[in-house]
Design goal:
Layout (H helix, E strand, L loop, with lengths): L37 E10 L6 E15 L11 E8 L9 E9 L16 E9 L3 E9 L4 E9 L6 E7 L13 E11 L13 E2 L19 E11 L11 H9 L2 E5 L6 E7 L4 E7 L9 E5 L1 E5 L2 E4 L2 E7 L6 E7 L8 E6 L5 E5 L3
Antiparallel strand pairs: 1-2, 2-3, 2-4, 3-11, 4-9, 5-8, 5-11, 6-7, 6-9, 7-10, 12-21, 13-14, 13-20, 14-19, 15-21, 16-17, 16-20, 18-19
Length: 363
């Protein structure tokens, strides 16, 4: 009789690989960059590069953000997210903000038992590097109940990758909504004005008071020499950090598709969908996306055209977005153009090598 032998796979830090969706964060290893791998001149907030990671900037300098191959040695990571200050702000205004954050759906957090006597502790772990040493703040925000908790960590040595681990107590107040909307936000602060730093750091769950959120935070925006890198972000239930959960790339990409999907091409002339003319100014497009979106998306296109019999018709606007069902990945939407013919079929086509159409249902 043969004996089945099961061997545990080990990660670079010697701990076993665990594939059980323990990480509440998506794309914590900075694998997926659908929007762009590099942007410059950013002075306001948006989703710019790494999927699921939003940048918040309010008059706190000018920034480049990029995918970097500078990563912790021998830890299994391929990329990090890099912030690079290109115009400094050494004297922050009271309401100035600079941060990187991820937002999490309430239906993915019900097992935390938040708002009950059995509320679970959470542990945040990540790798970070900067030339700017000192105190930084990592905050959890309960968006449903206007509550938050902040903890500090220290970058001890300049230009050196350091692993940080922070544990947050469970919150027995404030049940999270069981829906597909934002319930919790994880924020890595990089700079903050006095509106957020003038009180006492709130290291226990409490109703949100802005002055107590970011006390002690260094100002990463105070010099154009400043850079900040992060990778290996993991938020998990419990009071200790386990090894980072390395997921296959296709699984990470599929999870990112729920919030954002960008259809791009490497050359002009590629077709991505079919449209039918409704009248002289409208055509209805039906498109199947890689996975079900979180919600009805906003749709943005660049250099896309409708084409029939060798003639291109410029797409002016997109509106009237209709999902087949809330949990499906089939959408129809109206393209507004001119010179169309009712009932005629058109190809939806990339008209340039950098053309795209994207579907955004981010939190």
């Amino acid at each position: 009789m043969s004996t089945l032998r099961v061997e545990a796979l080990e990660q670079p830090d010697g701990t076993a690989f665990v594939f059980n969706n323990k990480n509440l964060l998506i794309n914590g290893g900075m694998n997926v960059f659908q929007r762009s791998t590099s942007v410059t001149g950013k002075t306001t907030g948006a989703y710019y590069t790494a999927d699921r990671w939003q940048t918040s900037i309010t008059t706190a300098g000018t920034w480049s953000q990029s995918r970097s191959t500078d990563v912790p040695s021998a830890q299994g990571f391929g990329y990090s997210l890099k912030m690079d200050c290109t115009t400094a702000d050494a004297s922050l205004g009271a309401s100035d903000v600079l941060a990187i954050n991820q937002r999490i759906e309430g239906q993915n957090l019900q097992h935390l038992l938040k708002g009950t006597s059995s509320a679970k502790k959470l542990t945040l772990s990540f790798w970070v590097k900067s030339n700017k040493t000192g105190t930084y703040i990592a905050e959890l925000v309960d968006n449903d109940n206007t509550r938050q908790i902040s903890k500090s960590y220290t970058i001890d040595t300049a230009n050196t990758w350091e692993k940080k681990t922070i544990t947050y107590d469970g919150d027995t107040t404030g049940i999270l909504d069981n829906d597909n909307e934002q319930s919790m936000r994880v924020i890595f602060w990089l700079a903050a004005g006095s509106n957020f730093t003038s009180g006492t750091l709130n290291t226990s769950w409490a109703s949100t008071t802005d002055a107590n959120r970011v006390v002690g935070q260094v100002n990463l925006a105070d010099s154009t020499s400043n850079e900040w890198y992060i990778t290996g972000c993991q938020l998990e239930v419990g009071s200790t950090a386990s090894g980072f959960e390395f997921e296959p790339y296709d699984k990470i990409l599929a999870r990112c598709y729920r919030y954002y999907s960008k259809m791009i091409t490497d050359s002009a002339g590629r077709r991505c969908a079919t449209a039918v003319g409704d009248n002289t100014t409208n055509a209805v497009v039906a498109m199947v996306l890689p996975t079900a979106l979180r919600a009805v998306p906003s749709i943005v296109e660049s250099n896309m055209v409708l084409r029939n019999s060798g003639t291109n018709f410029t797409i002016n606007t997109i509106n009237s977005i209709t999902p087949d069902l809330a949990d499906r990945n089939y959408f129809s939407f109206t393209c507004v153009s001119t010179g169309l013919t009712g009932t005629r079929t058109y190809n939806v086509r990339h008209n340039a090598a950098d053309a795209y159409i994207d579907f955004d249902s981010e939190l």
